Amino acid sequence: MSRKFDVVNTIQGTDEWLAERQASFTASEAPAMMGASPHTSRTELLTLKKTGTAKEVSDFVQKNIYDKGHKVEALGREIIENRTGEELFPITGRKVVSGMVMMASSDGLTITDSWGSEHKQWNKTLPAKVEAGDIDPQYYWQMEHQLMVFGCEYILFVVSDGTEKNMVEYKYYPVPGRREELIAGWRQFAEDLITFIPKEVTAELVATPIERLPAILVEVEGEVKGTNLEVYRGAALTFIENINTNLETDQDFLDAKATVKFCKDAEAKLEAVKDQVLAQTASIEEVFRTIDDIGISLSATRRSLDKQVKTEETARKNKLVTDGLEIVNNHLATVTADLGGIDPHVTIPSLAASIKGKRSLGKMEDAIDTAIANWKKDVQIASLQISNNLALVNAKIDFKLLFTDLDSFIRGEPNYVTMLIDKRINDYEVQQEEKRKAEAAEKKRIAEEAERIAEEKVKAEAARIEREKIEEAERIAEADRIAAETIEGTDTPQLNAQEAPSPAQEPAAPASNTESVKAVVNRRAVDALVKHGFTFDRSKQIVTMIVKGEIPNVSIHYDR
User: What is the pTM of this model?
Assistant: First the structure.
C-alpha cells in the first residue's frame, strides 16, 4: 500500500529518534508553537529547537506521567481495538509540508491509515470536556498536525485510565481553516528560529533573605523598667539605609517586593508592642515616641520603595509593549508594501492584555513574543489569500479597469473573489456587446440615411439633367421655329464676308427689306454649316443660338 507519509523506523528515546525530532516540527510541539501549551512556552520551544537541549524531567514526572501514560495508552489501545474490530499500530511518520519537515507519532493507526488514535490520561476535568466535544487548543493542534502528516480521515481522541469504566472518546475531524493556520504558524516559527538567540539559562529567582531586626523588649511595671528600643532603632535605621532602591534586574524587583513586605510586617509588630505596653500602663511617652519614630521611618521607606517598585514595573511593562508594537508596525509596513499598498486588516494584538497577571519579566517577554508570533501567523494567512486573489485579478489584465476598487474585495475568500471577477467581466462583456450592437445599428442607420440622401441626390441630378434636356430641346425647337421663320423662302446663305458673293455677283437687297436680308444671310449660314458637315437641324440650331447671342464671341453681320 502506498502511504501519504514516510515511516520513521527509529526507537523512541534513542539518539536517532531525538535527532529526527530535532530536525522536524512535531505534533507534540504544535501546541507550544501556537502558544497553547500549559507546559512549554513558545520561547522554550524555540530554545529547544535552537540548542537541542530539552527541559529536564523530574523522576516524579517521568514515573507518574510518562511511564504511566505509556502503560495506560497500551491498555486503552486494546480496548479500542476490541470496540472497533480494527487493529491499531503505534507509528511515527514524516512528511514535507510547504517546504518544512513535519513529524507525528500516533498511539495507534489503522492498517489502511483511515483513522488514528490519540490517548490522554484520565483526570478530573478532561473527560467531561471530551464528552461535550469541547476540545482544548493544546489537544486539537496536536491532532490537526497528526491529520496533516498521516492524511487520515479523523483522530479518535481517547481519555482513559486503561479501563472500560473510565474511558471516553471523541472523533476529531479536520476543522476548515485550522490546518492553514497551523502551517502558517510553523512557517512563522521557522522564520523566528533563524534569528532567535537563546537567553542565558538561570535558576528561578527568589528574594534574598533579609536579616531580621532584633526582637523588641519592653518591661513594664507601672512604668518602663527596661527596653532595647534604642538598639532596635539603630538596627532598623541601618536596615533602612542599606535598602537597594536602584531597581534594574528581576532579582532587584524580587528583593524590593520582599523588603516592602518586611517593612510592613515590622510596622505591624511595632503597633503590637504599643498595644501591649498600652495595656499595662497609661504613661509610657518615651517608649511610644521611640516606637512611632521607628514606625515612621519604616513606613516612609516602605511606601517609597513600594511606589518605586510599581513605577519601575509599569515602566518595564510599557517598554515591552512599546517595543512589541514597534515590531508589529514595522512588520505590517513591510507586508503592506509587499502587497502593493494593501493592508491585510489583521487585528493588532493587545500586548498589554497578553502580559496581564505575569509576574516575571521573562514570562512577560514570552507572552508578548507569542502574541506577536500568532499575529504574524494570521497576517501570513491573510497575505497569502490576498496574493492569491491578486493573481486572479492580474490574470485578467485586459479588464484591469474593472477592478480599481481592489481594497473593497481583495481580502475576501477566493471563491467569492473568483465569482466577483467573473461577474464583472461578464457584465462588462454584455454591456460591450450591447454597445457594439447599438453602434452597429447607428452605423447602419447612418449608412441607410447616407444612401437615401445619395439616391435623392442622384434622382435630383437626373431630374435636373432631364429638365435641362427638356429645356435644351425646347430651346432647340424654339430656335428651329425661329430659323424656319427667318430662313423660309431664302436660297443662298452667307456665313461671313469671305464666303459671301461679291456685290457684283449678288445685287444689294433693298433697304426697305431688312428682314429679308437677315433671312437670306441666315439661310446662307445654315447652308455653310451643312457644307462643313453639320446636319441641317443642328446647323439651324447653331445659327439660331448665334442670332440670340448664346454663343460668346460669335455673331452674324448683315450687310446690304
Answer: 0.61
